[in-house]
Amino acid sequence: MNTTEKKAMEENFRAIWKEAYEAGLAAGKGSNPAPMIVGEAKSFFSNEIDTTKPTYFVSEGCCGFAWIVVRPGNSPFARWATKNKNARPEYGGGTCVYWVGEFNQSMDRKESFAYAFTDVLKKHGIKAYSKSRMD
Predict the structure, then answer these.
(1) CB of 61 within 8 A of CB of 33?
(2) Which candidate, 100, 103, 99, places its Cα nearest to that of 31?
(3) Residue 54 counted as domain residue
(4) Rounded to whole angstroms, how far apart are CA atoms 73 and 97?
């Protein structure tokens, strides 16, 4: 691959990343997390909150993580993302990963970001999927 082709490929990857990131931000901002109330149960087997003890309203829903996985980790896009510090290699897994750092601890917003981001990558023929877990 000559220098011109390499530069064109890098510009294409940069444009794809930007499109995916912007789609993720829009999806995260547009999501509507289900708020939660955190408190102590009235008894061990109760689903009712003891309102005489401290309770907390969490408007952004449950806390959690989300990330985007690109496979294989040695694909041209994965190598570009790793080289440009957009993602990091996942050792032993043959993948590269982008951890969603946006939207503080809101799992719902992070998941929305990750799904939208992944959809854009797939649209461009990049093998990717998203994962999440509750904290």
Answers:
(1) yes
(2) 103
(3) no
(4) 9
Structural domain boundaries enclosing 121 = 3-32+62-134
User: CA-to-CA distance for 39 and 26, rounded, in angstroms?
Assistant: 32
Residue 51 within any structural domain of the chain: no
Give the predicted TM-score (pTM) of the model: 0.89
Q: How far is CA 118 from the centre of its chain?
A: 9
> Minimal CA–CA distance to 62: which of 8, 106, 14, 123?
106
- pLDDT, tens only, 47-104: 899 989 999 999 999 999 999 999 999 999 999 999 999 999 987 778 999 999 999 9
> How sure is the predictor about 22, in pLDDT bands with cuts at 50, 70 and 90?
very high
Q: In this structure, are residues 95 and 78 in contact, taking their beta carbons and an 8 Å threshold?
A: yes
Calculate mean pLDDT across residues 21-35. Answer: 97
Share of the chain above pLDDT 90, in %: 84
Let me know if residue 53 belongs to a domain.
no
Helix/strand/coil for 20: helix
Q: What total number of domains does the chain contain?
A: 1
Cα–Cα distance, 122 to 109 (Å, whole number): 20
